[in-house]
Amino acid sequence: PTNTSLPLPPTATAVKPALIIRFTTSSDWATVSFTGVRIKTSSRIATSGNPSTSERHGEEIRLNQQTSLAIAGHQVSSTDEVLLADPIPEKIQISVNNGCLGWSEVEILNAVVNPPVVVARQLAAGCRNAVLFVPSNLLNTQTPTTLARIGPPPPTLPPNTNIGESKIILFCPEIQPPKQQLCVVKFPSGQKIKLGKEANYAEFGRPAWSADGTQIYYITWPSATSQGSLFVSAADGTEGAKQVNASDAAWSPDGQTIAYADNCTVLRLMRPDGTGRRFLNTPENPCIYWLRWSPDGSQIAYADVRDFGKKASSVWVINQDGTNPRRIYQFQILLWEFYGLAWSPDGKSVGIWYEVKETSGLQGLLLDATGNSTPQPIDWAIPIWWTPDFWPQWGITK
What we know:
Layout: E1 2-5, E2 19-25, E3 29-35, E4 39-48, E5 53-57, E6 60-64, H1 67-71, E7 76-84, E8 91-98, E9 103-110, E10 117-125, E11 129-135, E12 166-171, E13 180-187, E14 192-199, E15 203-209, E16 215-221, E17 229-234, E18 241-245, E19 248-251, E20 258-262, E21 266-270, E22 278-280, E23 288-293, E24 299-304, E25 314-319, E26 326-330, E27 337-343, E28 349-355, E29 363-368, E30 376-378, E31 390-391
Parallel strand pairs: 1-11
Antiparallel strand pairs: 2-7, 2-9, 3-6, 3-8, 4-7, 5-6, 8-11, 9-10, 12-13, 12-31, 13-14, 15-16, 16-17, 17-18, 19-20, 20-21, 21-22, 23-24, 24-25, 25-26, 27-28, 28-29, 29-30
């Protein structure tokens, strides 16, 4: 689990504690719960996104929505005002549990001040839980140390397609860190197939489907300082065979080519069996992550995260033959995290999702793939069906 502990604020006027919980998820289910303290009373302020379930049981708040909506990137949320029962500990433990689809975010607001202000946030994603420790005197002071927005506007649904039968590559929920293992989950049946073996890697993932849905690649990093290794395996669970060293990769929509970043600095192409390797010239000595092919296979997008945290990142698009590399977006600020990049189904736009600082919350932009139009803010989560770990990607079968 991810643990976040906030510093205690300076001495301030203490009054009756009250807090607001804004809980947002793009998963099919998620919960937020308190440990070591009871909820005395709660009242529902609002919901958005039409969740199929939005309820509190004891010290747990649960949200549910249809799986097809979660795959499309739809978000649901609830906002509750909560009064905790005595005794209240010095630090309040709050846990966020997320289903294997999408992500969840909890925002804790001091409701003593008017208007309420956010004093803590936490994200959880992909079959994982996260734990947040909130100092209780952040919730009963009239002079909180953190001032922030209450939350994003009510979520809207991105353009959707009839998903139908599909498969998603996920971390197996029953395998907890430091061990990890990938699973294929079929929808709507829920049938699950484990890929390879349990492993204790420093990092493990970046999975993607072949165009015909019969093969999968994934990347492993045995240690924090080692080069990543790209494996290609059958989708029936057969253990994969190593092809090349790679820090990131992307499978072309026609299934004939894999683009990969060699040690994050060199962009190369190869056939799925590792033959036919060639080099694409990328400007400005980048560190390449989030490689993604356009739906028609003519272009490749990527994020340049060279000196991440010290230098502003940028987003690039290059033709598959190596011509016309162009920057379509340049961040003007440093990022805390870059969560994802995906092409829209029509190939005209590139969506990016990121966090500016640890407590700022997930943000997104829809970029014009030519770089000529103004980026559009988006208030929906990454549509899973736009990503290479969903089959068929963009709802297109080969």
